[in-house]
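Bench log, entry 3. Co-assembly request; chain sequences pasted below exactly as received.
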Amino acid sequence: MAIKQLTVFVENRQGALVAVTDTLAKHNVNMRALSIAETQEFGILRLIVNDEKTAEKTLTEEGYLIKVIDVVGVKISDEPGKLTEALGVLDKAGINMEYLYAFMARTEKHAYVVLRVEDNALAEKVLVGAGFKLITENDVNKL
Amino acid sequence: MEKRYYQKEIETMAVEDIKKLQSEKLVKQVKHVYENVEYYRNLMDEKGVKPEDIKGIEDLHKLPFLSKADLRDAYPYGLLAKPLKDCVRIHSTSGTTGRRVVAFYTQNDVDLWEDCCARAIVAAGGTSDDVCQVAYGYGLFTGGAGLHGGSHKVGCLTLPMSSGNTERQIQFMNDLSATILCCTPSYAAYIGESLKEQGFKPQDIPLKAGIFGAEPWTEEMRKNIEETLGIKAYDIYGLTETSGPGVAFECEEQTGMHINEDHFLAEIIDPDTGEVLPEGEKGELVFTALDKEAFPLLRYRTRDICVLSRKKCSCGRTLIKMAKPMGRTDDMLIIRGVNVFPSQIETVLLNEGYQPNYQIIVDRVNNTDTFEVNVELAPEQFTDKVSEILAMEKSLANAMKIMLGINPTVRLVAPKTIARSEGKAKRVIDNRKLI
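Structure output for the full assembly:
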């Protein structure tokens, strides 16, 4: 059920980020969502892309540190309080969250939230149980 | 002003007399070493030199060299020339077992060493009226013990502060009116900056002189320290292998350090051929300990690049002078007074499960050495969590601190980002301008 997140180590220097996005563009990889966690020295780029296999292959060939991990994608309607509701479900189930980031759908009236939690299966189970719709790799590719 | 010396007879002895004294001592010392140190006896036998071949300092060149590698091979007792029951102390450099130097001292060795430090203190203007603040590290490091002993011999009131705890250093300095400060030049600069920040002007600070060594420093740094603290700053040289600080010391002329030639016979050699170079030529500094009983190294290669000079000194001392060391023939770095070999960093990385792809970057900012180690992260070590990467950096820095005794800033970097030339990475970038 989970979706794939591409994680890339980028040094915190001028041009480092554009080099990654440029490589992806040249190989026709389209980004769906992007988040970056940064420190003074480095950043960790987290990407949801339409073709993570090509992305992983090309970036690895370019010498980047890459890690593909499973994350949970959940669809929530674009209205106040909906994210809180989803997070409340996880909190109640005692699921620890490392980070999250959200992106808007282009056409539909809702948002997608990417969740990085310790236990994907449990998170998916409780979210579905609370009536949330999860997104799949298939959905990502069609976005 | 009347010129003062701690041991005038030696310090102002005619050059011919010093050489005669050295010759007599050398003949005895070679015999002592040959009889008691199997390791060196074997080296002499291999070279076909017998103690009776050494009739004076003109024969010194016949003797084999000792290097850091010999010290490693002979660790810990292989170069000991006295039974342990006659030894009263050890000192040691930091490092792995492979790089560690353990030096042994008899009571007489300690006495002569302290005399050397006393000469340095008197040359810096010290008398029994002075209050001497020793802010070198105490313990295995020779800095604290050497200057502490020298200060006692001069009769100064000795403040055995050890290094660190700058607030307390400043408090004791002011409350007890310390007049002489002994520490590394970078720590002196740090104390000076702290005093300045607290609003002290040079004339408010009781110090009049400082004896600073154990790491390279520039004339610019000297000027800076002298202005901030309102003192005259003197250089001092030594290494654990030869005893510690006090092998050579600066006088008021501040144009090089007088070598205590009655105890240490200095040579300059070509580091590649081992050939002895004439006075005034630049080369590797080599010491022969003439009086040391427990750990008497003969022709020990210091790896310091240096020049010697017999030019007449206005202080009246006739002891030969050495310039500030101008570099090293090996890859040893001196960072905040601590000897660091890149191989030690490598050992830590391998122990902690990292590939030895690293780069050491040293610089000097506000007179204090900065010490960064960049380490390439392997793909299997990469994680998407920032906190985990930061924790890895911290734990690596900690492991390096345990190995080296000083704290580096560790940065994990992407693979193959450390510049490589001819396939070999440049391991050390030293941006300090020390000469």
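The CA atoms of residues 22 and 262 of chain B lie 6 Å apart. DSSP finds eleven helices and 23 strands in chain B.
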